Amino acid sequence: MLKIRKSHERGVTRLDWLVSYHTFSFGGYFDPDNTNFGDLRVINEDLVMPSAGFPTHPHNDMEIITIVYEGALEHRDSMGNGSVIRPNDVQIMSAGSGITHSEFNHSKEKPVRLLQIWIFPKRKGITPRYVEKNFPEEDRINRLQLLVSPSEDEGSLLINQDVKLYRSVLKENNNIDFNIAPGRKVWVQLISGSLKINEYTMSGGDGLAVENESLLKISSLADSDFLLFDLR
Prior knowledge:
Blueprint: E1 2-5, E2 11-14, E3 18-22, E4 40-48, E5 53-59, E6 63-70, E7 73-77, E8 82-85, E9 89-94, E10 99-105, E11 112-119, E12 129-134, E13 145-149, E14 157-158, E15 164-170, E16 175-179, E17 185-197, E18 200-203, E19 207-210, E20 215-231
Parallel strand pairs: 13-14
Antiparallel strand pairs: 1-19, 2-3, 3-4, 4-11, 5-10, 6-9, 6-11, 7-8, 7-10, 9-12, 13-15, 15-20, 16-20, 17-18, 17-19, 17-20
């Protein structure tokens, strides 16, 4: 079973400093048919205006992944971490027993575009943890680049859940096959471009829920940047 979540169907928050598109229920946006997908709880596509951002706020018992694809995002947290996340960087934070953090556009001139992803943890109450890493774009051209996994395979970042997150930049007229293990499900989030996955065509911002399937045949109709989640 494959089901498309079209970009225009997402919830949206519009403020003077933020435009945020919500694939799943988030904040003041609630859709009973789209609250989560397995352990995948949040995919927010955020556009943050220059010098603006999210003031210090708390989290607990959530795996939070941030991927910047345009601009730069400044991060500070209660563990003493302070950094600037740029394109090709991936940040993961295990909120565990509790953490506070802030996120601001590092630029005074240009907006920052990012994806923020929340995943339910496997174990609750763990000691909070933060890590980031740069993943070169050339390593995901026409292949799946593993960003996050529960066992740090292929240099990926550790996550407290049985989830693997891949990213790919599939050039026009290229193909990737992805085999799905029995009992697993997949979510594909298209950042930009156009893909055909099995019989479905996707445009930028679309998501695709996949259950009870064994193979995905992914073809690019244009240069396409996408994430693939292998989930319970």
